[in-house]
Write a structure and sequence with these properties.
Keywords: Membrane, Transmembrane, Transmembrane helix. The protein is about 80% helix and about 0% strand. The protein is mainly alpha-helical and about 290 residues long.
Length: about 290
């Protein structure tokens, strides 16, 4: 195994550990949270699977970005399951139960919804978006569904083991993730550098900001719902995006653009997370002064 594959494996392992850790302290009520709120369920599916793909294609039609940027945005818009959603929602004060339920729902729905979204976009904009159902199913099951459900089962059957595993798994994820991201960016810096220019940074930033705004607005009036749906709408899974882009245009190299998206979405998400943290914990008023 070459160094690049080791780095990618470490990145994937950190995501699996993060999702597994959330399964360790999730209950049956968490898994059913979204299905007991049909209005929120519909808005969530519309934001992730329909509105954001349409926005990506409209951006492609309106602006004149370079070809790899336009196609990468469409592929990213068709790629739900933000891999770092649990970490970000924790920091921003999102609703834990909604995050878990949304992660499971998007995972199971993605297997059908991604090809369906591709067909709808192809019909609306008179172009074809083919999707490898087998590869997407493999990514979804291995990186999201399986670790989350295994963690849930461990918590139900062996609660003492789950309590012991939670901090251990958290430490592994917290160590592996930053190291893997830095190593991955360093290994692919040439591809990332080639993605600069021609409006690529603007296109990615605009897409992420619009995603955050759409999700935040549709998640109202509950702030905890807005936080989760905003991050789910603006942040997409790079592995699924590369799978879709490579299947449709094998002669183009999308690695640099997709990795640049990962970097920019992380940076753009920071002000939003900080804003929501301040909204959750507003500054305390100054102490009242006693009259003389």
């Amino acid at each position: 195994m070459d160094p690049k594959h080791i780095v990618i494996f470490a990145f994937q392992l950190s995501i699996i550990c993060t999702v597994f850790g959330y399964g360790l302290h999730s209950s049956r009520n968490d898994l059913l949270y979204l299905w007991r709120r049909p209005g929120l369920l519909v808005k969530s599916l519309l934001a992730v699977f329909l509105i954001m793909p349409i926005i990506a294609v409209v951006m492609e039609e309106v602006f004149e970005f370079r070809r790899t940027t336009e196609l990468a945005l469409v592929a990213l818009a068709l790629s739900p399951l933000p891999p770092l959603l649990p970490t970000k929602t924790d920091k921003a004060g999102g609703e834990h139960s909604f995050m878990v339920a949304l992660l499971v729902t998007l995972s199971l729905t993605a297997i059908i919804a991604i090809p369906l979204s591709g067909l709808i976009l192809g019909w609306m904009f008179h172009r074809e978006f083919s999707v490898s159902l087998g590869k997407i199913t493999q990514i979804v099951l291995m990186m999201i569904v399986a670790p989350l459900l295994i963690g849930f089962v461990v918590r139900r059957r062996w609660p003492k083991l789950a309590r012991w595993l939670i901090p251990v798994v958290g430490r592994i994820a917290n160590i592996l993730l930053p190291l893997a991201v830095v190593a991955l960016l360093a290994a692919a810096w040439r591809g990332i550098w080639s993605a600069f220019g021609d409006g690529t940074i603007f296109a990615i930033t605009f897409f992420v900001v619009i995603g955050l705004a759409v999700g935040h607005w549709l998640g109202r009036p509950e702030r905890g719902h807005s936080v989760v749906l905003a991050l789910a709408s603006g942040c997409r899974h790079p592995a699924i995006a590369l799978t879709i882009a490579s299947a449709n245009f094998p002669d183009l190299n999308f690695v640099g653009t997709v990795l640049l998206y990962v970097l920019i979405s992380a940076i753009v998400g920071v002000p939003y997370v900080m804003w929501q943290r301040r909204a959750e914990c507003p500054p305390s008023p100054p102490p009242a002064t006693r009259p003389p």
